[in-house]
Every structure is written in structure tokens, then in C-alpha cells.
Amino acid sequence: MSGSLQSFFAMGGYAAYVWPAYGVFFVVLLIDWLAPQFRRRRTLRELRGRMARQNTRRERTNRNSATSA
């Protein structure tokens, strides 16, 4: 049993190429899974900032128009 397991991990002499390829694949898969979540957070943060600036401008405009009237 251990001989077959050892030969599996040796990958017929190509283990130095196969295992790093698996590693790169899973790293890319993880990044591909996480990227949209980080992008969504960044977009929501930007939108909240825009909305806050817009509300501040509106309040300032309403305050200025109320004092000048």
C-alpha cells in the first residue's frame, strides 16, 4: 500500500512539475473566488462615500438657500 501511495506522490517522476501546477491552480482558484468579494466591498465603500458627499452638498445647498430667502 505505501509503495503505491509513494508512487502516486512521485507521479512517475514528474512530481516536481505536477505538484506545483496543482498548487498554482488552487491559489488561482482561491483568488478567483475571493476577488469578487473584495471588489464588492470596495464598490460599496465608494458608493457610501459618494452618497455621504452628495448628502453633505444637498444639506449645504438647502442651508444656503434657506438663509438667503
UniProtKB/TrEMBL annotation:
- Would the keyword Membrane turn up in this protein's UniProt record? yes
- The main location class comes to membrane
**Pfam families from the entry?**
CcmD
From the UniProt entry, list the residue stretches annotated as the region Disordered: 49-69
Q: Which UniProt keywords apply?
A: Cell inner membrane, Cell membrane, Cytochrome c-type biogenesis, Membrane, Transmembrane, Transmembrane helix, Transport
Q: What does this protein do?
A: Required for the export of heme to the periplasm for the biogenesis of c-type cytochromes.
- Name used for this protein in its record: Heme exporter protein D
Organism from which the protein derives: Dyella dinghuensis
